[in-house]
Amino acid sequence: MITAQHLVYRYDPKDAPVLDRVSLEILEGQYVAVIGPNGCGKTTLVKHFNALLVPQDGEVLVDGLSTRDAKAHREIRRRVGMVFQNPDNQIVGMSVEEDVAFGPGNLGLAPAEIRGRVGVALETVGMLRLARRAPHSLSGGEKRLVAIAGVLAMRPAYVVLDEPTSYLDPAGRERVLNVLWDLRQEGISVIHVTHSMEEIVDADRVVVMSEGKILRDGAPRDVFREADALRAVGLSTPQVTELMGRLRALGCEVRPDVLSVEEAFREISALVGTGTGGGR
Amino acid sequence: MKTLPLGQFIPGDSPVHRLDPRVKILTVLLLSIVILNSGAVEGLVVTAFLLAAVVLSGLSAGRIAAALKPLAWFFVLLFCLHLFFTDGRPVFAILPAVTHEGLERGTAVTWQFVALVVSAAVLTMTTAPSELVGGFEKLLRPFNRLGVPSHDIAIMVSVALRFVPTLLEEVERMREAQVARGADFGRGGLIRRLRKMATLVIPLVLCTFRRADELALAMEGRGYHRGPRTYLRELKFTRVDYAALLAVTAFLIGLEALRFLPL
């Protein structure tokens, strides 16, 4: 479990805090989406989870280890893997497999063990085929997958991803999202920072941040039901949710908490009275 | 397109490719000493050795020529300097500056440099950069206790190599961005063109610092720490490697020793 208690952080002592007494708990195996407008403190928050930042006030505990304890940093960073926004700036190795081997090498594992982990990690993200390729010859999506594999080779319990789908084409984005979904199936906790509402409708939990505070924290269905609150801080809801909201405003009897096209189809076809739902 | 000095690694499965990088590095070191000390006889033997190495490694003559090409003017200059500025017996009566001694020195010195470049080229063309770095790291490891941080040096070098293509791409992007806004890098005199390059260098340096910042964070996040670490491939001498190292060392030391024998 990752616990943040009354977390306060400011980059400049004169400024307003970027994180203002944030408290939250992330359970093992949970898929948590963190959303919020630019500058709301999402990235700053997640950087606390693997001790890249240490709280100025309050505390962050990772499985009971405090990030204030510098001696615990290595273990914390092994447990909480972090994938940054720009994969170009986090790939160290001269080839894909060597990059994935970087973390295990830092742990001082034997070559045979490293090889095993590299294989498993690359297999998980579907990049085994390109193990020998040079990083700069990969597409944006492939670089992201390598960055994720590099973190997985550390066998983390939590993986934090900062906007893992930005700048990707739809196919690359799909691949990354599928991998994240697989991680969750394997019981790894995923903390997914994003701007895209469509990406997170399947999350266990959505944490909405605004101006250094947690605005909402709950299941996607509950969070998106409150479209007005989200709009007030400059966020939107998924398009289908928005559509249902507009239909409701017209007086149609549809559910307010629709998240997927499938659900929306069922609601609308019931309304129109043609299709009986279910099929496409 | 994106080449490193001396010649990029050319994947292959030749006996030279398969040798442990340490064997190749040590051979090049020893060979360099021999080359710089050699007279005519040793020179011929070393040339034969280099030719054999090139043939064994399956590298084409074109590849070797490509490695030498950027230095062609340097070789010509070197040869001419010795040719014209060595005192001795003139070759032609009408051109007293050109001497027999000059011809000899010029040939010898130019050959030395060509041989050095060829031996280095064979090393870098038959050894993957990561293997090369790994080889150097392992060779330096015994000096850890003397304060040589072999692991940190290896990381530094491999990160630098890894970022060469990325930074080249970045330069290209910046150049395009400036051309799109009307800059012209192709025209003008040397000074003008150099000044225009400065408009690329400054953003590149700034950008690189920002990258370095993020990279450091990412490395820390992946558990990087100074000092010993382990690698995907831990180099191990095979019997062939031992034999090759022994043979090459004996051969080159023998060649050196030959000069001290009264023949």
Characterization of this structure:
The complex is a heterodimer of chains A (280) and B (263). By secondary structure, chain A is an alpha/beta fold. Chain A folds into 2 domains: 2-234, Rossmann fold (3-Layer(aba) Sandwich); 238-280, no CATH class. Chain A contains 10 helices and 10 strands. Chain A has helices at 42-49, 73-79, 96-106, 111-124, 140-152, 170-185, 220-225, 227-232, 239-249, 261-272, and strands at residues 2-9, 19-26, 31-35, 57-62, 65-66, 80-83, 158-162, 189-194, 205-210, 213-218. In chain A, the strands form 2 sheets. Chain A has a 6-stranded mixed β-sheet, sandwiched between helices. A 4-stranded antiparallel β-sheet of chain A has the order 2-1-4-5, with helices on one face. In chain A, a hairpin with a 2-residue loop joins strand 4 (57-62) and strand 5. In chain A, helix 5 runs parallel beside helix 6. The longest helix of chain A is centred in the middle third of the chain and has 16 residues, at 170-185. Chain A is globular. Chain A starts with a strand and ends in an 8-residue tail after the last helix. The model of chain A has no long low-confidence stretch (mean pLDDT 90). Chain B is mostly helical. Chain B folds into 2 domains: 20-128 and 239-263, no CATH class; 150-226, no CATH class. Chain B has helices spanning 15-18, 21-37, 40-56, 61-68, 72-84, 100-126, 129-140, 150-180, 190-221, 239-258, and strands spanning 90-92, 95-99. Chain B has a two-stranded antiparallel ribbon with strand order 1-2. In chain B, helix 2 runs parallel beside helix 10, helix 3 runs parallel beside helix 6 and helix 7 (129-140) runs antiparallel to helix 8. The radius of gyration of chain B is 23 Å and the shape is flat. In chain B, 22% of the residues are buried. The mean pLDDT of chain B is 87.
